[in-house]
TrEMBL record:
Taxonomic path: Eukaryota, Metazoa, Chordata, Craniata, Vertebrata
GO biological process, one term: endosomal transport
Gene3D superfamilies xref list: Mu homology domain, subdomain B
Protein name listed in UniProt: AP-5 complex subunit mu-1
Family in the record: Belongs to the adaptor complexes medium subunit family.
InterPro entries: AP2_Mu_C_sf, AP5M1, MHD
Compartment(s) of residence: Cytoplasm, Cytosol; Late endosome membrane; Lysosome membrane
Keywords: Cytoplasm, Endosome, Lysosome, Membrane, Protein transport, Transport
UniProt membrane topology term: Peripheral membrane protein
């Protein structure tokens, strides 16, 4: 697990190059390893100039390049992650991790310890998660407590020294760069026991452990016999351990109910000291079997001082939490819509938030509306051509609700009305937004009684769970399938 190179690029529209490399770091020793591992498929890391041009081109951020290009914009190149292949000098550099935040592009190239042809699955490349974690750590460091460009320049000037500690020789030890800065600025103190790289300093105070499990469910429902609906759950276990001592040891167990969906694609924090091989080998790429590992999932670790993500996981749950159907039909100048939702009986009927956004973009403002809702309230944003169905905190006892209505639209303004490349004509959709506290779709929970702590004092242990929606769409069943269907395929 190592990185070949890291870049920070300021996106500057209107300039000759479209951007400026504000920071870059290459690791020659890792580059030699890449050449040995990749063999004939090895592509060297380019200089900053060619890399800048290739990356801006791939991200469609060049001012003079807005035309469609098949090798970058074709349907066969739909990108599902922040991983790209850059065309440099007639060869393709892959994988390149890159994302844009606050006019700054964060990029890195992880080491792939095998040949690149055919391309190995991303889940088998451990350096991808390392590279993304480092870039997110750099982003947090640059923009925490930043007030102006002078502060940003100061932090950029500190990066070379910080990466010497946080990522020596391309191997990530601690993605929290503030820890490295504190280590540089602090006075050296003799410790009776060597501090781990991810923990700088020691905690003094009341012992307590907080565990938070957040699951995000994505879903695409089409209401068609020839197109399968898709859904997937991704979970994150966040921890905050306030424990005295240089190297306290903690073991947290995640458990599932009898009918819970097994956790897959598990990625752990570097502070985890050991892990059962059955936990790491469970992958969503493989066909589900009855013998799939279903826990308990034990994570022994030495915690850092700050909050951290103990692990990430995915899961293939048998059904989505809310089933829906959407029918839209044009009759002359009017538009008739029918919406039905059903909460699955296994899902906890206690929402913090539950609402459905029904956009009618690419049309004029809503001038007339007649509707009937069996439950909840409907808010109308006429100028935005948007209906918001506020379902509330509970579904009725029947677990089913419906909405029907007839809409009339005015003349569309040239630049005032919302536009959506997908929501064109009959290709309409509903987006569901909901959040359920003290609940996970997989049933995953942290067993507070099984938490093992090897440190002075008995800590107070608290655990929380919640389920939230993300990209949860119900598509018009009268329409052809939109291209976003591919975004949820494994």
């Amino acid at each position: 697990m190592a990185l070949r190179a890291v870049w920070l690029i300021r996106h500057e529209p209107g300039t000759p190059l479209g951007g400026t490399v504000r920071f870059s770091r290459r690791y020659p020793t890792v580059e030699k390893r890449a050449k040995a591992f990749n063999g004939m498929t090895y592509v060297p890391v380019p200089e900053d100039g060619p890399f800048l041009r290739a990356l801006l081109f791939q991200l469609r951020l060049l001012d003079d390049d807005k035309d469609f290009m098949e090798r970058r914009d074709g349907c066969s190149r739909i990108n599902k992650t922040s991983i790209y292949g850059l065309s440099v000098g007639g060869e393709e550099l892959w994988p390149v991790i890159a994302f844009l935040r606050d006019s700054m592009i964060y990029a890195s190239v992880p080491l792939v310890e095998q040949a690149l042809s055919p391309r190995p699955p991303l889940i088998s490349i451990s350096g991808v998660s390392q590279g993304l974690e480092l870039l997110l750590g750099i982003q947090d460091f640059l923009y925490s407590s930043q007030k102006n460009d002078t502060d940003l320049h100061t932090k950029l000037s500190q990066l070379p020294d910080l990466l010497l500690q946080a990522c020596p020789l391309g191997t990530l030890l601690d993605a929290n760069l503030q820890n490295s800065l504190n280590s540089i600025n602090s006075v050296s103190v003799t410790q009776p026991q060597k501090q781990p790289a991810w923990k700088v300093g020691a905690y003094k105070g009341k012992a307590q452990i907080s565990i938070s499990i957040t699951e995000t469910v994505k879903c695409m429902q089409y209401g068609k016999q020839d197109i399968a609906d898709t859904w997937q759950v991704a979970g994150t276990v966040a921890c905050k351990c306030d424990l005295e001592g240089v190297m306290p040891a903690v073991t947290i167990s995640l458990s599932l109910p009898t009918n819970g969906s097994p956790l897959q694609d598990i990625i752990v924090h570097p502070c985890v000291t050991s892990l059962d091989s059955a936990i790491l080998t469970s992958s969503s790429i493989d066909t589900m079997e009855d013998s799939a590992f279903s826990g308990p999932y034990k994570f022994p670790f030495t915690p850092p001082l700050e909050s951290f993500n103990l692990c990430h996981y995915t899961s293939q749950v048998p059904v989505p939490p809310i089933l829906g159907s959407y029918h839209m039909k044009e009759e002359g100048v009017q538009l008739k819509v029918t919406v039905n939702f059903k909460l699955h009986e296994s899902v906890r009927n206690n929402f913090e938030v539950c609402e459905a956004h029904i956009p009618f973009y690419n049309r004029g403002p809503i001038t007339h509306l007649e509707y009937k809702a069996s439950f909840g309230q409907l808010e109308v944003f006429r100028e935005k051509s948007l209906l918001v169905w506020i379902i509330g905190q509970k579904f009725p006892k029947s677990m089913e609700i419906s909405l029907s209505g007839t809409l009339t639209f005015g003349v569309k303004g040239h630049n005032k009305q919302p536009f959506d490349h997908i929501c064109i004509g009959n290709t309409a959709y509903i987006k569901l937004n909901f959040r359920i506290a003290d609940y996970t779709l997989t049933g995953c929970y942290a067993d507070q009684h099984s938490v093992q702590v090897f440190a002075s004092g008995k800590p107070k242990i608290s655990a929380y769970r919640k389920l939230i929606s993300s990209d949860y769409y119900i598509w018009n069943s009268k329409a052809p399938a939109p291209v976003t269907y591919a975004s949820l395929l494994p």
